[in-house]
Hints:
InterPro entries: Rost. This is Protein rolling stone. It comes from Dendroctonus ponderosae. The chain is an all-alpha fold. The chain contains nine helices and no strands. The protein has helices at about 1-25, 55-75, 90-120, 120-130, 130-155, 165-185, 195-215, 235-270, 280-285. The longest helix has about 35 residues, at about 235-270.
Amino acid sequence: MVVGVYIVSKQNKKAKMVVTWKDNFILSNIWPTFGSPEIFVMSQWQRDKQTPSYLYVLLRVAIFLTFFTIWILSYTMESSSNKPKWPLYLTNWGLTVCTIQSFLSSLMLICAILGTNVLDNSELTQSALKAYKTYWITNSMATTIAFTISFVYWTLIHQPEYWSIMNFMVHGMNAILMIIDFCAVAHPVRFLHFVYPVGLAFVYVTMTAIFYACGGTAKNGDQFIYPILKWSTPGITVAYCIAIMILIFFIHTLTFFLYKGKVKIAELCFGEPESDSFSDTAMQML
């Protein structure tokens, strides 16, 4: 009898796991909707998931201020002739998205702290949490794009003679900050959200093709922004673009599994349930 109960329990557990993983691929999960927006102002590592942590808000504000400083310096340190070409580079697109998502996160957290712990005003907290969808999209883009930019730059583009602190800040520190961000947040990473960073990359690639067709030049006078985006050889360039899209998908998938691992570690440490349980999709959706 005990053996029979054990077998049934094991089968039920296996069936539940299959259902859970299938739910990761439900098309409705593309949309940035979640049943408990409060999770977007919580850290994975705080025991009390009912109120925002002061330590966590300090971390998020510090990340935002660092991103904002790098973003400002990346533009102001350009020569006057190169400033108009600052928006041409994917590095700066990624840095901008990182800065936007860190600003939105800090804003939501500060409002949640004020509304919950200081003013006792739940309406302030709820109003701030309305930004979670925009934040979630930008965070999904920022995390994957930051990792992709750093990987591609240091493996394919970097030339040692052009080393500088600013170069490291925009191509290395961005990924470091997003790793810290990824480790700290409690909100989920959804597999189907790969469409957001891939979509951003597609828009950028389209822009570079239009830029070339219009006769634009990069900061150094080249007719291409990056060596791997030479539209004078469209076949090779398209192949590179497809490879980059696949890399973005792979990095997002890796991030998704790292998120699952992070949640399991948190469960072992605190005994808390997974923050993005896909076993009840209806409970997630607003």
